Amino acid sequence: MMFARFGIALLAAPILFGLMSQAALAAPPSNDAFTGATPAAIGFKEIIDTSQATTDSDDAQLNASCGAPATDASVWYVLQGSDQNVVVDVSASTYSAGVLVGVGSQGNLQTVACGPGTVVFFAAAGTTYYILAIDDQFDGGGNGGSLSISFTEVPPPPTVNISVDPVGSVNTKTGVATISGTYTCSNGEFIDVFVNASQSVGRFTISGFGSFSAARTCDGAPHSWSAEVFPQNGKFSGGQSLTMTFASSCGPFECSSGFVEQTVQLRGTGTVSRLSRARTTRAEISAPRRLPYFQPR
Q: CA-CA distance, 117 to 89, in Å (whole number)?
């Protein structure tokens, strides 16, 4: 009888162990609730399983001033401000993840920033920020998954410097002027240059516009640029022309611009440029990019 009982115990042990293992695997993450928020700082990052995470009234209270479609599979983090712009990025998660940032106390949080994928906010020294990572259900279903979250400092804004050569050229047949110069930019993904030129001819003023654009050249080194300026009400000719040149460059979160006013001596040429057969229209400097998500109300 004793051996029979021992045998039954041996048979039951793997089953009990399996049930206990499943229960452990099914447990929600330790930061599932506000009171278990994981401390974070600039440079912190982790990947955690949120498939068993839940949502509660604290999530709903913070979301009331944000408007995310759902706060499923939510987990909390807490960050102490240090007068830095902070980027919280969950875009590498295996599901549609979003972020809400609040200040205050449990049940009485005020939304500072919120959005899908990535949010940016200024973390003032002496202020505690509570960060909620959620499954916003923009992918249509499921409950969380593998959350990839990181806290980084906003990269420095782009720098832009633009110059214009004092001598340009004009095609005497088409009246199209060519203005050139040098630019230097850093921390930007691209640079756009817009040229506005005007020239007095008797009692009239000839005006025209041109542009130049380049990507992946904001490396801090000087680069040459050149733009064909197409007249809008006549033809440019040899002589002086007043130019106003704007340059704009944008990084992931911020944009910067530069401006220079320069009198350019146009010298006539008779060569017909391929680009002069086309016509450009005035372009506006790109506005700073905005994150496309729910904003605090």
A: 6
pLDDT for residue 15 is more than 80: no
Q: Does residue 287 carry a pLDDT above 60?
A: no
- In degrees and rounded to multiples of 5, residue 93 shows phi and psi of -70, 165
| Cβ atoms < 10 Å from Cβ of 166 | 10
What CA–CA distances, in Å, run from 101 to 63, 95, 206, 237? Answer: 10, 19, 53, 59
Q: pLDDT tens digit string along 52-65?
A: 999 999 999 999 99
Interatomic CA distance for residues 131 and 148, integer angstroms: 14
Alpha-carbon span 93 to 98, nearest angstrom: 10
In the predicted model, what is the mean pLDDT of residues 141-157?
95
**In angstroms, rounded to a whole number, what is the distance separating the alpha carbons of residues 74 and 61?**
13
State residue 8's pLDDT score.
42
Domains defined for the chain, CATH in brackets = 30-153 (2.60.120.380), 159-277 (2.60.40)
Rounded distance, CA 218 to CA 159, Å?
9
Determine the Cα–Cα distance for residues 65 and 100; give it in Å rounded to an integer: 10
